[in-house]
């Protein structure tokens, strides 16, 4: 993905890397056209099948499960990255307690 903004620096590289791998390898998406601001449906081209494949891949590769509300709240790639990063942070915070 290209065109990182200052907000991107808060995104763990592992989440971004895995999400890029999922887009490229599991969903056959051309990453040269994907930015944090790309809309998942209109610009990236995800449909219901792609969302399902992507969610399974995210759970397998990151161990993060998104509920329907969280997923529906993600309009852009950046939204999805932020939700995944927050869920990963929350999970690691709970593991330390």
In a nutshell, what does this entry contain?
The protein has about 100 residues and is an all-alpha fold. About 55% of the residues lie in helices and about 0% in strands.
Q: How would you explain this protein's 3D organization?
A:
The protein has helices at 13-26, 48-62, 68-72, 77-96. The protein is globular. The longest helix is centred in the C-terminal third of the chain and has 20 residues, at 77-96. The chain has 4 helices and no strands. With 97 residues, it is an all-alpha fold. Helix 1 packs across helix 2. Helix content is 56%, strand content 0%.
Rg computed from alpha carbons, rounded to a whole number of angstroms: 13 Å
> Would you identify the regions where 5 or more consecutive residues have pLDDT less than 50?
2-11
Helix and strand element order: HHHH
Oligomer category:
single chain
The total count of strands amounts to: 0
Count the helices. How many? 4
Percent in strands: under 5%
The percent of residues in helical segments reads 55-70%
Structural shape: globular
Largest β sheet strand count, sense and barrel closure: none
Q: Structural class of the helix and strand makeup?
A: mainly alpha
Q: Give the overall average pLDDT.
A: 84
- How far the N terminus sits from the C terminus, by CA atoms, comes to 34 Å
């Amino acid at each position: 993905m290209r065109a990182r903004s200052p907000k991107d620096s808060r995104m763990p590289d592992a989440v971004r890397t895995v999400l890029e791998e999922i887009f490229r390898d599991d969903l056959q998406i051309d990453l040269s056209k994907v930015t944090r601001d790309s809309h998942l449906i209109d610009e990236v081209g995800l449909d219901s099948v792609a969302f399902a494949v992507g969610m399974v891949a995210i759970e397998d590769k990151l161990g993060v499960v998104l509920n329907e509300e969280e997923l529906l709240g993600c309009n852009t790639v950046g939204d999805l990255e932020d939700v995944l990063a927050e869920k990963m942070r929350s999970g690691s915070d709970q593991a330390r307690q």
